[in-house]
Amino acid sequence: MRVDIEPLGDILLARVSGELDLRTAPEFRDTVDGALERDYRDINLLLLSMAGVTFLDSSGLGAVLGRYRRLSQRGGRVVVCSLPHQISKVFELAGLFKLIDAFDTEADAIAALRGGGAGCQQQTR
Amino acid sequence: MRVDIEPLGDILLARVSGELDLRTAPEFRDTVDGALERDYRDINLLLLSMAGVTFLDSSGLGAVLGRYRRLSQRGGRVVVCSLPHQISKVFELAGLFKLIDAFDTEADAIAALRGGGAGCQQQTR
Amino acid sequence: MPATNKVTNYVEIEFPAVPENVEFARVAMACFASQINSFVLEEIDDIRLLTSEAVSNSIIHGYPGRPGIVRLRATIADGTLEMIVEDEGRGIPDVKRAMQPAFTTREDRLGMGFTIMEALADELEVYSEENKGTRVVIRKRPARSA
Amino acid sequence: MPATNKVTNYVEIEFPAVPENVEFARVAMACFASQINSFVLEEIDDIRLLTSEAVSNSIIHGYPGRPGIVRLRATIADGTLEMIVEDEGRGIPDVKRAMQPAFTTREDRLGMGFTIMEALADELEVYSEENKGTRVVIRKRPARSA
Ligand SMILES: Nc1ncnc2c1ncn2[C@@H]1O[C@H](COP(=O)(O)OP(=O)(O)O)[C@@H](O)[C@H]1O
Ligand SMILES: Nc1ncnc2c1ncn2[C@@H]1O[C@H](COP(=O)(O)OP(=O)(O)O)[C@@H](O)[C@H]1O
Question: Is B121 helix (H, G, I), strand (E, B) or coil?
Fold first, then answer.
């Protein structure tokens, strides 16, 4: 599991790759929370770009939802994009798309975050 | 494991790929022997091209050596080419290069088989 | 090789209940399941997910903050994969309730593990006794038979 | 993550002695061994080969033409991988002789299995008793420690 953090103005882009499970979820949480609370305290829009995620289970979903809850508390927002088919299926099964909007590409997600759209360009699942 | 057979005039080219072990060795043997004894009885030069072999152990080596012995008995010859590093290492450890010549490419091997060379263009290991 | 579908084969695996071993369990089950040739790639991915959910539950909930052992038994018979994931941990007082969507006893979790397992398995059985342990039985057949 | 090198972890695996399970054993051992981060890819390949040779021997020689069970136990301690491959099969009457290059009791084989294992393992121990079974102990450390 790997997280690459890149600030894009008012948005924090986190590109996640590898396997997000019980073992790696704490590292994911620490990296993202560390960036949001230490390096980029003024950013409260988080985009999780997941094209490189090869596995994700409910422990991984829990880590994603944890970031959603934290940012919601401070008036922020979390969206995801570029979900591989199997990862999208796990989000769907767990009902996470009811809380977290998903987009096909990073560009779509960034446009929606900046436009404040509610996610009508949501990824076809 | 997969073997693709292609006759090149006086040479039978067998391109092997996948894992050659205790489970797959019988299939390798049957395919190659079937070709040599049924479809191409007049060919007695065999080139095993192994670029696609992802695993080979001493059961796989035994299957290669078995073809060598069969063809030697009828005055033929077996050479190998395009060995991935790990496969070459197994041949080396088992001392098989003392019996079977190895070449870097299919072209090198074909030239040597046609020229009747003893394998001085042997692959650097 | 349609013959493999009639072969009965099994593996039994035992390991300590630590997060490091969840990936190992997934890889082992995916590899074993692929002996059933008619499983397509997506079904093998489902088996990875089923394994991950059941084994993670034994680690987190079965042995919270203490060491323990997880046992995995997978069997292939008549083209069906059966996986049994077992711990000798804390057990579940009310299985029916535990299996409801969003039910969890740990607030950092979703409570969707069993829901995901029910969606992906052809059959799911959960046996549990408090302070004795939990056994999860998962059966999965290829959608397209060979 | 150099910390993993101090963790002690293990897996125990049991399966029927059939050729279908050799690949499973290789994949399982390669995946488990990769918990030692300082193993490079070529060393993981060596572990696949070591596993394949030892497990194949139990299947072919331990239980020739009859059913049987192979047990595999792998342990990580102090950054070293120890693998034990065990059968309750025919056993080896003269281990020293069996380990010599080109010695084999089956003419379709090379007799190079033990030679390959000796070359790739840091330590190789073979215990065997006729009609009781055979136990092969293999130890492998990363060449470059973390
Ligand atoms: N192996 C187990 N041992 C003890 N309790 C378990 C076990 N598996 C599940 N449970 C209980 O069932 C609940 C629901 O499990 P699950 O649906 O997988 O969601 P989650 O793991 O997110 O809590 C858990 O919160 C736990 O209380
Ligand atoms: N697990 C085992 N049970 C019984 N005999 C064995 C076992 N492993 C090895 N042997 C004996 O040792 C010999 C040499 O083994 P090895 O070097 O692996 O070569 P090969 O498998 O090609 O014969 C075998 O031919 C067999 O007689």
Answer: coil
Beta-strand relationship, B101-103 and A11-20 = unpaired
> What pLDDT shows up at residue C6?
54
* Per-position pLDDT tens, chain D of length 146: 444 445 589 999 999 999 999 999 999 999 999 999 999 999 999 999 999 999 999 999 999 999 999 999 999 999 999 999 999 999 999 999 999 999 999 999 999 999 999 999 999 999 999 999 999 999 999 998 75
Confirm whether B121 is domain-assigned: no
User: Which pLDDT score, from 0 to 100, does residue A118 have?
Assistant: 53
Residue D144: what pLDDT? Answer: 87
Containing domain of residue B58, as a range?
Answer: 2-113
- For residue A115, the model assigns a pLDDT of 86
Q: Do D23 and B21 touch (CB under 8 A)?
A: yes
Structural domains in chain A (count): 1
Is residue A88 included in any domain, yes or no? yes
Q: Which residues have C-beta within 8 Å of that of residue C62, sequence separation ≥ 6?
A: C17, C68, C70, C87, C88, C89, C90, C91, C133, C134
Per-residue HEC secondary structure of chain C comes to: CHHHHCCCEEEEEEEECCCHHHHHHHHHHHHHHCCCCCCCHHHHHHHHHHHHHHHHHHHHHHCCCCCCEEEEEEEEECCEEEEEEEECCCCCCCHHHHCCCCCCCCCCCCCCHHHHHHHHCCEEEEEEECCCEEEEEEEECCCCCC
Ligand 2 pocket by Cβ (under 6 Å):
B 58; D 57-58, 61-62, 87, 89-92, 98, 103-106, 109-114, 134
pTM: 0.94
Judge whether residue B2 has pLDDT over 70.
Answer: yes
Q: Point out the residue among D4, D10, D27 whose CB comes nearest to the CB of C27.
A: D27
Tell me how far apart the alpha carbons of residues C1 and C11 are, in angstroms, rounded to a whole number. 21
Q: Strand, helix or coil at D111? A: coil
Best of C92, C99, C116, C134 for a ligand 1 pocket test (most atoms within 8 Å of beta carbon):
C92
Share of chain C above pLDDT 70, in %: 95
Measured in Å, residue B57 CA sits from the centre of ligand 2 at 14
CATH number of domain containing A50: 3.30.750.24
Q: Which two tokens stand for residue C61?
A: 């909930």
Tally Cβ neighbours within 10 Å of residue D85: 28
In a domain, A102, yes or no: yes
Looking at the domain assignment, is residue A124 inside a domain?
no
Give the pLDDT of residue B118: 53
- Kindly give the parts of chain A with pLDDT less than 70: 116-125
Which residues lie across from B15 on neighbouring strands?
B4, B49
Closest chain D CA to residue B22: D19
Residue C86 in contact with residue C70, Cβ under 8 Å? yes
Could you give the CA distance from residue D20 to residue A13 in angstroms, rounded to a whole number? 45
For ligand 1, whether the C-beta of C92 sits within 6 Å is yes
